[in-house]
Specification:
This protein is mostly helical and 63 residues long. It has a domain at 14-38. It has two helices and no strands. The protein has helices at 3-12, 16-38. It is elongated, with a radius of gyration of 25 Å.
């Protein structure tokens, strides 16, 4: 799809509310595009959560 066709269709929109909705949708698409580029599967390193939480001494005991 060419930029000229997109611009032509945008010019045909007369409602300010629809133009605002289109602008919001374009912002959403741009944010999605940039986040898709940043999404890289990260493999956690062994022991990376060390010290992040503490187990109670009586964890295995029945109460």
């Amino acid at each position: 799809m060419s930029e000229e066709l997109i611009a032509l269709k945008i010019q045909q929109i007369q409602s300010k509310a629809f133009k605002q909705e289109l602008l919001s949708f374009l912002d959403y698409l741009l944010a999605k595009q940039s986040s898709d580029r940043l999404m890289v599967k990260r493999i956690p390193k062994f022991g990376c959560a060390k010290g992040a939480f503490k187990m109670l001494e009586d964890f295995d005991e029945h109460k």
